[in-house]
Amino acid sequence: MTPGARLEKLVRDTATALMPEKTRKWIRAQQRRYKLQSVPVGSVDFGGLRRLSPISAIFGQDRDLLTIERYYIEEFLKKHSADVKGRCLEMGDPAYIKKFGGDKVTQIDVLNYVEGNPQATIVADLTDAPHIPDNTFDCIIITQTLQMIFEVDKAIATLHRILKPGGVVLCTSHGMTRVARREGVDDWGEYWHFTTQSKKRLFRAHFAQENVDVSTVGNVFTCICNLHGLGAGEIDQSELDLHDPNYEMLVLVRAVKQA
User: Fold this and answer.
1) Phi and psi of 203, rounded to 5°?
2) Among candidates 68, 76, 75, which has minimal Cα distance to 169?
3) Which of 59, 163, 177, 229 has the most CB atoms lying inside 10 A of its own CB?
């Protein structure tokens, strides 16, 4: 979107918000009556998106491309790569600690919910993990995990407790996307999709308000493409880089424990 288009959208959205509801309804009625919509009814060409099943049912992992969600996650972690240092903890495997921490990292730990992961140094349920000492980690990376935990508030309390003072948690979670079910494994289902409002309230219950930064990524087009399982490489960079707060594909949190 060009700067001029952004300004036009801002002016239009502001005028709409300030307009009385009765006036808005009258204008919409006239638009329908005289076919004055920006895209007239009946003129939309759905093309290859007119289908009742997704192009890829597994988040685009079968298309040999970086998925749209993973693209946004890596952009977020790259932006905050300076936080990935000292003793670091990641869920499942240490891929992002290694990619974004490099030689700033002095010790790597991996948490897994169940036994059997050879990369795990800690086996624990984040909602009840008294065996993980307080004030242990300088950085915790937790991507696409909180939505799988029913008692999410308890998990965030644990994240806060096991961070060192001044430590940082970098967290990403689903907002507007398909459900990630694990067939036949109900305990690993997906319980929540978040918004900026819910993430702020959840994290600010444990972290100081000024130490919690919540942001989102995505727009209506990238959300549609992500629902169809398209890869990030199939979308123009300008389309990926435009973030519309009304379409929260992912909700991203950087939270710092009070020093």
Assistant:
1) -75, -35
2) 76
3) 163
